[in-house]
Design the sequence.
């Protein structure tokens, strides 16, 4: 369920994130999905474009700097990684913060999963997953809450395809070589 790619190609999104102590933020942008686990997320709120492949990820910042990382992404990418469930830090992998304990069907279009924190078993959270799209729409933990507040689905353009090809060309960071055109 959560490891399968989302079932849409291009989506504009908005997330609301509430943290305690009060550090409330909104994130907005566009997410592109390609075949084979390739994705590109552009966050319009901070001028960040993030490329994901099954082997690696790369961030391109507004100032032109580039940072390479593992396929699970980078610190500080929450909550928009909820839009990429296979890259969100919730599956109990090395570097993840959470692991899924239980999945309950809430309806034909949504499931709810209960998670626990890998560093504290008594620290629990829930997520809601929209089955038609394969994306996480809410994350609810004692000191953090995020929810999808805007979703607009569209078809891929030729420029979108070019961005997805950039992501598909990523190599693992331990043997990464410069990709022409970056």
Sequence:
């Amino acid at each position: 369920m959560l490891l399968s790619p989302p079932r849409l190609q291009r989506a504009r999104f908005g997330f609301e994130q509430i943290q305690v102590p009060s550090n409330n933020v909104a994130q907005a942008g566009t997410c592109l999905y390609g075949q084979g686990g390739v994705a590109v997320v552009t966050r319009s709120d901070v001028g960040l474009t993030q490329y994901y492949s099954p082997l690696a990820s790369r961030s391109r910042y507004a100032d032109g700097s580039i940072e390479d990382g593992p396929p699970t992404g980078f610190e500080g990418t929450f909550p928009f990684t909820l839009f990429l469930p296979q890259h969100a830090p919730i599956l109990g992998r090395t570097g993840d913060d959470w692991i899924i304990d239980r999945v309950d069907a809430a309806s034909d279009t949504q499931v709810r999963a209960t998670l626990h924190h890998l560093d504290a078993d008594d620290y629990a959270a829930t997520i809601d997953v929209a089955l038609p799209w394969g994306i996480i729409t809410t994350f609810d933990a004692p000191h953090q809450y995020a929810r999808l507040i805007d979703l607009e689905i569209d078809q891929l353009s030729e420029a979108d395809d070019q961005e997805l090809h950039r992501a598909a060309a990523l190599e693992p960071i331990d043997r990464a070589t410069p990709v022409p055109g970056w």
About this structure: The radius of gyration is 16 Å. The chain has one helix and eleven strands.
